[in-house]
Amino acid sequence: MLRRLSFTYVIKAVQERLNSANLNCLVLMPENIVDPCVIIEMEKQDEVESEFEWKESYHFFIHAFAASLDELYQQIQKVEDELATRISVPEGYEIVSQAARGEQKLVQENQITHVKMGYEFVISHGIKTKI
User: Are 96 and 122 in contact (CB under 8 A)?
Assistant: First the structure.
């Protein structure tokens, strides 16, 4: 398949996976954050150089919010556990890698504790052929 997978499909698949673990996962930042919750922030989508395959890299952040540090640690563990197994992708696509990457940041803002975790998925969408 020569068509790359839309980033919206990746976000939706991650959201569904995290919601199945009762993480209250959102894709849009609400005006007033209701803790505990998890928000997905898409950072970028890039083509990955490869001699043999068409591959795309999807970089995103998962923000987790909670009232207490203990509750936040539980959320972090749930996110890590859920994203340790591959998300499902449509036929014709294959996950090459799915891993935590980039920024991992823990902060206290007002009465809410917040962590920002970076992830990268690389998805193949076809084999390159030479004619």
Answer: yes
Residue range 2-41, pLDDT digits in tens: 678 899 999 999 999 999 999 999 998 888 877 789 999 9
Question: Cα angle vertex 77, ends 76, 81, to 5°?
Answer: 120
Whole-model pTM above 0.85? yes
Please compute, for residue 84, the number of CA atoms within 13 A of its CA located in the half-sphere on the CB side. Answer: 8
* 105 CB-near residues (< 8 Å, 6+ apart): 115, 116
**How far apart (Å, rounded) are the C-alpha atoms in residues 127 and 70?**
46
pLDDT at 110: 78
Dig out the tokens for 45 from the structure: 């989508």
